[in-house]
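Aim 2 progress. For Cysteine and histidine-rich domain-containing protein, the working sequence is reproduced below.
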Amino acid sequence: MPENKNLVICYNRGCGQHFDPNINDKDECCHHPGAPVFHDAYKGWSCCNKKSVDFTEFLNIKGCTVSKHSNVKPPEPEKKVLDSELEKKEVIEVRAPIVGPQLTRPPFESPTVTLEACIADSLKENLQKASQPTVAAADGNQLVKIGTICKNGGCNTPYEGPESNSTMCTYHPGCPVFHEGLKFWTCCQKRTTDFDTFLSQPGCTTGTHKWVKESAPAGTVKCRWDWHQTPEYVIISVYAKKYDPFTSYIKINPIRLNTKLVFHEEGNAVFEIDFELRGVIDISKSSASMMPSKVEIKLKKGEPGAWSKLDFPRKSEPQQEPQKPQDEQPDDDSVDLSTVEAIQSMGKVNVTG
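Predicted structure tokens for this construct:
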């Protein structure tokens, strides 16, 4: 308690000192004229940019304004008054209208139309370039082009001839992961947000170079693909290189997408997808583009609404193997029991003919 009974407490925010109202003619009150702000674990004042995550430090933040003391309490914020008749009022529940499919789905086997894809000039130029000389790899029968980059993750060593097989390969045996802005390999967990830094990370394992990708089933090629959608279109991207745009095709009907890419440099191997689309599309307003690194298919939605998935899974009918004719077993009654000799020492039955 203050010794002088005439002293009163100052209610300016951030001050809290005692003063004599009769002697309050000087600007001695250092306080915050604004209101306290609490947001995202930070505590501060609206009048200045001083913030803190510790509540004690927040209370000790020095005021940003100097004026006279005041023993008048600041007005408290008004509290919301609960409506006493709220329970008696009628509750109106509003829901978004459920829009079902308006267009009829034709059969999956309906006739298809081949989309005329727009072929990029750079892709045509790549086809016209002369093929580079090839030499046989030392570890197999496949041919490896000069300048081919090692297929191990994180290794950028080019193939310069059989002598490249004797060099050490430093690579990442794991898989690349892109999650919430971070980029890293599952084998070493070195995380970064910069893509160039991620690509330049040195490998964590040593071994031999891999000049040829893991082989796919005979006559097929593995290509990565994904899709996204806008309010009006569904866009499918197939990431592929060195395919022939003139022998490849994209066929569609209102609920079907059939895409086939042909790779002549890999023995006319193909990549093919055949989907039953989740929604109905407008064929006349759909388009496709063939570029050196990918094929982009832009399908116009026939009706508004978002697709939960791209396609309906189709189960392939299992091929039934022909039943082999079973050998006719002789009836028990036709066995000549006179040839059966009991062997008591071994507890078995010996049949002699």
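The helical segments are 55-59, 121-128, 195-199. This observation will guide construct design in the next reporting period.
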